[in-house]
Amino acid sequence: MGKRVALVLAGCGVFDGSEIHEASAALVHLSRAGAEVKIFAPNIEQRDVVNHLKGSPTEEKRNVLVESARLARGNMQDLAELKAAEFDAVIFPGGFGVAKNLCSWAVDGKNCTVNEHVNSTLQAFHSAKKPIGLCCISPVLAAKVFPGCEVTVGQDKNVDGRFPDAETASAIAELGCKHICKNVNESHVDKANKIVTTCAFMCKAPLHEIFDGIGTMVQEVMKLA
Q1: What is the pLDDT of residue 41?
Q2: Which residues neighbour 204 within 8 Å (Cβ) at sequence distance 6 or greater?
Q3: How far apart are CA 183 and CA 165, in angstroms?
Q4: Residue 149 a catalytic site member
Q5: d(CA 125, CA 89)
Q6: Do the bridges between strand 150-151 and strand 188-190 make them parallel or antiparallel, or are there none, so unpaired?
Q7: Which of 90, 128, 121 is nearest to 217 (CA)?
Q8: Sorted alphabetically, which PANTHER family does this protein's record hold (predicted)?
């Protein structure tokens, strides 16, 4: 029987929800690994709605759970209903929605607050010693919830212009966590906390390299599950 994995989304679209390619990559790698996946999102209003063609905010109001259902082909559940006891692991793709909807990092940085159901989900899996996979900006959730943990968001310097958000590594360190520098096709495993992270679109890289990096994260999560 395959491992049971919960995937937590933050909406649909890189600028105000989950990064679609990251969510899809995680689902493809989980499928290849024979995992049984259920998809969740918090039933809350998005912080904002962005016109992805223009890159500018609109006056629309959208719901994170409803928008996430686009990625889940309608097969969605409210994050409030997630029970860690029913799963072997949890994975959070990235996208600005993580920093806007799952927590307030986009506005408050290291002083952010984490959505109550996101926080309780992370705490439940951690307490049960079940692995947590995070990619792109979502490792900041672990950094905020688990002081002292090890994560990667890529590099801590903007190497060759490929890591424009390298300052995130410094903010993670200021939270009392250890940032581990990794390339886009790699992931880092915090064995003590069973937290697996990879940088994904925090690096300007070809899509196939991001896909492969997410694959290493999924593989490590499945090993720990």
Answers
A1: 98
A2: 161, 162, 163, 164
A3: 14
A4: no
A5: 7
A6: unpaired
A7: 90
A8: ES1 PROTEIN HOMOLOG, MITOCHONDRIAL, GLUTAMINE AMIDOTRANSFERASE LIKE CLASS 1 DOMAIN CONTAINING 3A-LIKE1-RELATED
- Residue whose tokens read 């679209």: 13
pLDDT tens digits along 77-128:
999 999 999 999 999 999 999 999 999 999 999 999 999 999 999 999 999 9
d(CA 26, CA 215): 7
Q: Annotated catalytic residue: which of 135, 136, 149, 203?
A: 136
- Helix, strand, or coil here: 218? helix
Q: Which amino acid is at 112?
A: C
Helix residue spans in 72-175 (DSSP H): 96-97, 105-108, 116-127, 139-145, 167-174
Q: Is 80 left (phi over 0), alpha (psi -120 to 50) or beta?
A: alpha
In angstroms, the CA 225 to CA 131 distance is 6
Contact 132, 122 (CB under 8 A): yes
